């Protein structure tokens, strides 16, 4: 870990102002240390010489003022450090969440959701010791030893030479210990992230685990990971304690060497009492900041390790976000055709492309149905249109414009998306529907729910639209969750509608009810639908079949029974033109 990661200053502007303030307070503290040592040396030397009470009283008052100022500087430094830490954590959290959203589901699918959650909460909270303890001591470690060394050198060059030779031993020992600590800290953080991710997965799947009698096995796995994390934490603390002992011993021996040579020269009459006292008082101050920064380094390593992972995510390039903002048709009509030209999509780490040389033209108002076996590339095609992924080769056009040049946020305003398993957040039902168009009023939300056929069961709930949903809306049936997702789509009123198996997890009665709602939603819109339901596909203008990432068939809709046979029967690859 670097003493000060420059990425922290780049991604968190609050850290820059705090660092400048910390340097200013460090300069003030350094000056007060030198003044304090001079006053104490003068008082003790004067007491030995028997100076008057008036001179002693004046020096005591000055010393008291210096001590109060030093205490105020230390207090102000810690308060400002904690405030800066809170601002920095807030900035990094916002940046992390926003960037993860920009990276999209394709990137997030390859990560552990528990790790990202732990990183944005417990991980960034560990930055408090970094700002409140480590950085202030790092500033003092850069300023105080140099100032003390110069002051002692001016008073006694021999003592200054001894300190100059022994002072580098402290950071050398600290670096050697830090290199060993780094691997332990990274292992500790890895185990904490693994524990958080595994625990989240177990909690989400607890019902399934209980049904299949695997709950105890997972509890044992969590216990195992917890013990590993505890062992790694104790190993890190053991190194921290041993490092403090090594640094204290080195500083104590160096101070003893200075004290011995000063004492011998004082007895021989080669040094005055005031100079000797000044050297003896200032010598520990030269080593103290270096010892403290070594000790605080270990207290801040967890937060620094978490921040390093945050920086790795922030430096992950998102899909092409669009370099300009060309014309897009006004809502709710998408009058320009949507074309895919020789589009290939290859995910990192996979040998086979998810989509290979797909060419397709989608005309305004057209209703296309995509079928194919699992893993054929249907969801990947939707991911391209949603801008969750970018083509590895080929391009997508909207009219005469390259889709890659349109900002993703602007393009998504023209899309309504209903996935297989819509996510409902912990909040009210009204708020979940309003996500379709943030800022919509209660009247618009109710109207969208009515069009989706969701108003009846919502009104029967105790608090109606204000009913609070738990995590993943466990209290609602699959059909009710889908209707809320459809209400979002009605509220969005987007010209391009993407449907990903909206009736896949419903019983036949619920699916039949939902089909009428889908018919109302699809009217007057351009629709791209992934489905295996012949009833839903019968209204399509074209049926597309994907096989192993290739668009192998385009046929017109037929009778549902014949259509079902066409879906299930493998088709020979055909050349598809734009």
Structure characterization notes:
- The structure is a single chain.
- The protein is elongated.
- It contains 19 helices and ten strands.
- The chain has helices at residues 6-11, 13-49, 53-108, 113-125, 127-155, 157-166, 169-204, 206-211, 215-267, 273-314, 378-385, 408-412, 429-434, 442-451, 455-460, 478-492, 508-522, 534-537, 560-568, and strands at 338-345, 355-362, 367-371, 393-398, 401-402, 415-418, 496-500, 526-530, 542-547, 550-555.
- A six-stranded mixed beta sheet has the order 6-7-8-3-9-10, with helices on both faces. A four-stranded antiparallel beta sheet has the order 2-1-4-5, covered by helices on one side.
- Mean pLDDT is 77; it is low at 558-578.
- It is an alpha/beta fold.
- Helix content is 63%, strand content 10%.
- The protein has two domains: 9-314, ABC transporter type 1, transmembrane domain (ABC transporter transmembrane region fold); 335-414 and 541-578, P-loop containing nucleotide triphosphate hydrolases (Rossmann fold), CATH 3.40.50.
Query: What's the number of extended β-strand segments?
Result: 10
The parts where pLDDT drops under 50 for at least 5 residues are: 558-578
CATH superfamily of the largest domain: ABC transporter type 1, transmembrane domain
How big is the Rg?
A: 34 Å
Tell me, what's the shape? elongated
Q: Helix fraction? A: 55-70%
In total, the number of domains comes to: 2
CATH class of the largest domain: Mainly Alpha
Mean pLDDT: 77
The rounded distance between the terminal residues' Cα atoms is: 54 Å
The number of helical segments is: 19
N-to-C SSE series?
HHHHHHHHHHEEEHEEHEHHHHEHEHEEH
What structural category do the secondary elements indicate?
Answer: alpha/beta
Widest sheet, order of strands: 6-7-8-3-9-10
CATH architecture of the largest domain: Up-down Bundle
Task: Report the portion of residues in β strands.
Answer: 5-15%
Give me the CATH fold name of the largest domain: ABC transporter transmembrane region fold
Biggest sheet character: 6 strands, mixed
């Amino acid at each position: 870990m670097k003493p000060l990661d420059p990425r922290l200053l780049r991604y968190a502007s609050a850290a820059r102002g705090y660092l400048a303030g910390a340097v200013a307070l460090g300069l003030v503290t350094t000056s007060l240390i030198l003044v304090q040592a001079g006053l104490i040396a003068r008082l003790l030397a004067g007491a030995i010489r028997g100076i008057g009470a008036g001179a002693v009283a004046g020096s005591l008052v000055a010393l008291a003022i210096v001590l109060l100022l030093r205490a105020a500087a230390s207090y102000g430094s810690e308060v400002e450090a904690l405030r800066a830490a809170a601002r920095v954590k807030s900035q990094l959290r916002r940046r992390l969440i926003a960037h993860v959203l920009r990276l999209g589901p394709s990137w997030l699918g390859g990560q552990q959701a528990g790790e990202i959650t732990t990183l944005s909460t417990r991980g960034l909270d560990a930055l408090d010791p970094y700002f409140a303890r480590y950085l202030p001591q790092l500033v003092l470690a850069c300023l105080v030893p140099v100032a003390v060394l110069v002051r002692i050198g001016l008073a006694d060059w021999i003592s200054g030479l001894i300190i100059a030779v022994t002072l580098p031993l402290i950071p050398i020992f600290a670096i050697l210990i830090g290199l060993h600590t780094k691997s332990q800290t990274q292992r500790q953080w890895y185990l904490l992230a693994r524990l958080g991710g595994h625990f989240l997965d177990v909690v989400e799947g607890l019902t399934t685990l209980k049904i299949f009698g695997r709950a105890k096995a997972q509890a044992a796995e969590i216990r195992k990971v917890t013990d590993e994390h505890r062992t790694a934490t104790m190993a890190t603390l053991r190194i921290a304690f041993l490092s403090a002992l090594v640094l204290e011993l080195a500083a104590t021996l160096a101070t003893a060497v200075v004290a011995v040579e000063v004492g011998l020269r004082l007895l021989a009459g080669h040094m005055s009492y005031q100079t000797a006292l000044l050297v003896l008082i200032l010598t520990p101050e030269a080593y103290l900041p270096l010892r403290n920064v070594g000790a605080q380094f270990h207290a801040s390593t967890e937060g620094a390790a978490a921040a390093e992972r945050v920086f790795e995510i922030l430096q992950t390039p998102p899909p092409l976000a669009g370099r300009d903002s060309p014309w897009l048709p006004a809502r709710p009509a998408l009058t320009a055709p949507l074309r895919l030209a020789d589009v290939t999509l290859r995910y990192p780490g996979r040998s086979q492309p998810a989509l290979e040389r797909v060419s397709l033209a989608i005309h305004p108002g057209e209703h296309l149905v995509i079928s194919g076996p699992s893993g054929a590339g249907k969801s990947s095609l939707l991911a391209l249109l949603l801008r969750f992924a970018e083509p590895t080769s080929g391009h997508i056009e909207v009219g005469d414009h390259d889709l890659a040049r349109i900002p993703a946020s602007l393009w998504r305003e023209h899309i309504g998306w209903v996935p297989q398993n819509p996510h409902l957040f912990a909040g009210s039902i009204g708020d979940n529907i309003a996500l379709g168009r943030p800022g919509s009023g209660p009247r618009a939300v109710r109207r969208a729910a009515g069009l989706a056929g969701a108003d009846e069961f919502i009104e029967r709930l105790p608090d109606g639209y204000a009913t609070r949903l738990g995590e993943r809306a466990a209290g609602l049936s699959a059909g009710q969750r889908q209707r809320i997702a459809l209400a979002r789509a009605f509220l969005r009123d987007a010209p391009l509608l993407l449907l990903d198996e909206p009736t896949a997890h419903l019983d036949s009665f619920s699916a039949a009810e939902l089909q009428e709602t889908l018919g109302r939603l699809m009217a007057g819109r351009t629709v791209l639908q992934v489905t295996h339901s012949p009833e839903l596909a019968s209204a399509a203008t074209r049926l597309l079949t994907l096989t192993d990432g290739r668009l192998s068939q385009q046929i017109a809709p037929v009778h549902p029974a014949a259509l079902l046979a066409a879906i299930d029967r493998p088709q020979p690859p055909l050349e598809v033109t734009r």
